[in-house]
Amino acid sequence: MSEIGGNRDELTCIRPKHVNQVPGSPETLDLIRGWAQTCWTEHQPCVYERRRRLSKAKLSNTMPKRLLSVGQTGMSHVTLQDDPPFLHSTTDTRYAALSYCWGDGNFCTMIENINEIRQGISLDLLPNTIRDAIRLTRVLLLPYIWIDALCIIQDDQLDKRYELPKMASIYGAADVVFSASRAHSCREGFLYPRNLSETFQTLYIFPLYDRPNGDAAGKVIVSERALADRDGDEPIDKRGWTLQEQVQALSLLKCGSRQWRWTCYVEKDGLIDGGDLYFNITTRFDSTNFDGRPSPAIFGPNAPSQDPVTLRDLWDHWRRYVTMYSARELSVRNDALPALGTMAENFATRMRGMAGRYWAGLWEYDLPGELLWFKPKASSKNAARVGPSWSWAHSAGPVHFPYIFFLSKSDSKVEILGCTVESNASGWSYGSVTRAVLTLKGHLQPLFWKGEYLCYMGRGGGSDTITLLTFWDFENGRELLDLFLLEIFQEKEAQGIILHRLENGVFERVGYYTSSGCPVDNSSLGKASVSQAGMETAPHEFILV
Ligand SMILES: [Zn+2]
Question: Best exposed site among 364, 389, 407, 474 by fewest CB in 10 Å?
Answer without folding.
Answer: 364
